[in-house]
Amino acid sequence: MEREDEAGLVLQARAKVNMGLRILGQRADGYHEIWSILQEISLADEVRLREAPDFSLSMTCNTPGLPTDERNLCLKAARLLQETTGGRSGTAIELVKRVPVGAGLGGGSADAAAVLLGLNRLWGLDLDRRTLLDLAARLGSDVPFFILGGCCVATGRGEILEPRPAVTTDPMVLVTPSLHVSTAWAYKNIDNYPLTPPPENVIFQRFSKNDLRNPHFRKALNNDFEPLVFSHHPRLQAIKEQLLESGAYYASLSGSGSSLFGVYDSVETARAAVRMIQTGGHTYLLTM
User: Fold this and answer.
1) Less Cβ around it within 10 Å: N or C end of the chain?
2) How many Å apart are CA 93 and CA 62, to the nearest integer?
């Protein structure tokens, strides 16, 4: 979603959750082969872009401690677009963070994708979707998904995407505890735990068009990071149990964490769960 105001272009960078994350093994290039369903959720950052007359790139953010130099994916995205197109335009980026950082929700990747999409319009580049996806893949494995949005089956290292109808439109309760799980640490240690065998991957394709309320479909949507992450952070396992006990018919770690979410059959049940769950972090009621 985007809009124009007197300051420039304003975009909503929506976060995602993983409906299942199966790790199929490490590849020759060092990355892990995965299978996951990625679905956008309503929690979003706001990315504000205005053109800079001196062709410079700059960034501000409302979150103290978050880098606003070239370490930030937003500036990396703007620089990549500028260099790739030979552009003679600049931008000032204002990032309003609402998605928790390092929580397995893809907030930074969503912000970078919003910059690519927004500057493509602001700078009048008229790049097609394929070109934007290729640029996004150079920024990170998750970024291409946020160019497409919606719901996708992700394979490869996460960059091969097949758009699908939303797995669910039911309300969710999202919990973001006050602890951080490093994705790099999780992938480094995941090979010490059981991974999904390739033959089981055939099952995913058979059920990938079904609704989340289908119990056979849900049974295939495990997150292979959970045994590893829960063994080091028992509090996260306790939160998943709270989500299920409060009426969620599906609950999972998102990515490598630390966020977890539950899916409920009604807004009333989800709202009651928000009041019930005690985590010491933040709890959100999300409607699709």
Assistant:
1) N
2) 12
* Domain locations in the chain as residue ranges: 2-163, 172-286
CB 157 within 8 A of CB 34: yes
Query: Could you tell me the two tokens for 241?
Result: 């149990």
2-163: what CATH class?
alpha beta
pLDDT digits (tens, 9 = 90+) for 144-178: 999 999 999 998 888 899 998 888 999 999 999 98
By DSSP bridging, strand 8-26 and strand 2-5 are antiparallel
The Cα 282–Cα 175 span in angstroms is 6
- Does a cis peptide bond (omega within 30 degrees of 0) precede residue 254? no
CATH fold of 172-286: Alpha-Beta Plaits (3.30.70)
C-alpha to C-alpha distance for 138 and 143, rounded to whole angstroms: 9
Residues annotated as part of the active site: 16, 142
The tens digit of pLDDT for each residue in 101-135 reads 888 999 999 999 999 999 999 999 999 999 999 99
- CA-to-CA distance for 248 and 162, rounded, in angstroms? 27
Query: Three-state SS for 11?
Result: strand
90 touches 52 (CB < 8 A): yes
